[in-house]
Write a structure and sequence with these properties.
By secondary structure, this protein is an alpha/beta fold. It contains eleven helices and 13 strands. α8 packs parallel to α9.
């Protein structure tokens, strides 16, 4: 009897650029304070990619190459590259294609997934299905965003939240019950007006007027987004637990999207989890959009043990949201 094939994470990587934008520096840019930012978001600092000519792909490369070395894998072994991002290097070609070229993954094909802060989670689900098809053995899944490229640093509602960063995981087949075991993903396009980059697409192509009106920056109606995020991210995480017969004692780690500490707390409360089980690094990076989940996995990798039950949960603009249940496949090295 052949056991069912699942897609297991077998390696993780992460990268943030060296420049640190602190709350204190933001106090000199917009009308805000360190106390106000910390109280409402939990963020202390965020990393910004300052180097001219560097885009999202460059951060992804910095995350991927050390991971492949650690794993003992050649870029030539990578078969598929999926990149969750809303800040691709260009409108086209896909950032995944550029990453493949930059790391020397000459045998890979790939594509981008645009799902705002849910980009990595949706990419992970997609990569897992490719592994389960039986055709692919090494799938590289990336979450990366250079949010500073679409943030208006005169808008205190958004500039305090977002940072730049990239993370990645390697997916391989597993026949021992580890890896991605369940998922629940959702979209609701009626929420697009509340969290959106209004211009730059086919509805409002770039013009002098759209630039002058600052329509190429992120627009967010914070209160509405917060309300939807608190409800949906918490509910979907709890529903995945319920569907798999998991109690709060069974869940070893919650890996939540790092958008707002209050949203993370609400999700943990809904799941009945102690704070010790909730992975948080929002204070260091802010919201890196597609980068938050893989950066969390990378930061806390050494705490995971083979067989640990993880719930990955997210909510993003558009709206998009979801949760994935996975069983960790390896012990810390």
């Amino acid at each position: 009897m052949v056991n069912k094939c699942t897609a297991a994470i077998t390696a993780v990587g992460g990268y943030v650029p060296p420049y640190v934008l602190t709350n204190q520096e933001l106090e000199t840019i917009v009308d805000t304070t360190d106390e106000w930012i910390q109280t409402r978001t939990g963020i202390l600092e965020r990393h910004i990619q300052k180097e001219a000519g560097k885009g999202t792909s460059d951060m992804a490369v910095e995350a991927i190459l050390p991971m492949l070395v650690k794993k003992g894998l050649s870029p030539l072994d990578i078969e598929v590259i999926i990149c969750g991002t809303v800040t691709g290097d260009y409108v086209f070609p896909a950032t995944a294609n550029i990453i493949a070229d930059k790391i020397g993954a000459k045998n890979a094909w790939g594509f981008d997934v645009s799902a705002a802060c849910s980009g990595f989670l949706f990419s992970l689900e997609t990569g897992a299905r490719l592994i389960q098809s039986g055709k692919y053995k090494n799938v590289l899944v990336i979450g990366a965003d250079k949010m500073s490229s679409i943030i208006n640093y005169e808008d205190r509602n958004t500039c305090i939240i977002f940072g730049d960063g990239a993370g990645c995981v390697l997916l391989e087949p597993n026949y021992d019950g580890y890896g991605l075991l369940d998922s629940q993903l959702h979209v609701d396009g009626s929420g697009r007006e509340f969290l959106i980059q209004p211009a730059g697409g086919s509805v409002q192509p770039p013009t002098a007027e759209t630039v002058a009106q600052k329509l190429h920056y992120v627009h967010q109606e914070g209160k509405t987004v917060f309300k939807f995020a608190v409800t949906n991210m918490a509910n979907v995480s709890y529903e995945v637990m319920q569907r798999n017969g998991l109690t709060s004692a069974d869940v070893d780690w919650l890996v939540p999207h790092q958008a707002n500490l209050r949203i993370i707390d609400a999700t943990a409360d809904r799941m009945g989890l102690d704070k010790e089980k909730v992975l948080i690094n929002i204070h260091r990076y802010g919201n890196t959009t597609s980068g938050t989940l893989p950066l969390c996995l990378n930061d806390f990798e050494k705490q995971f043990k083979k067989g640990d039950n993880l719930i990955l949960s997210t909510f993003g603009g558009g709206f998009t949201w979801g949760a994935i249940y996975l069983k960790w496949a390896y012990d810390p090295s």
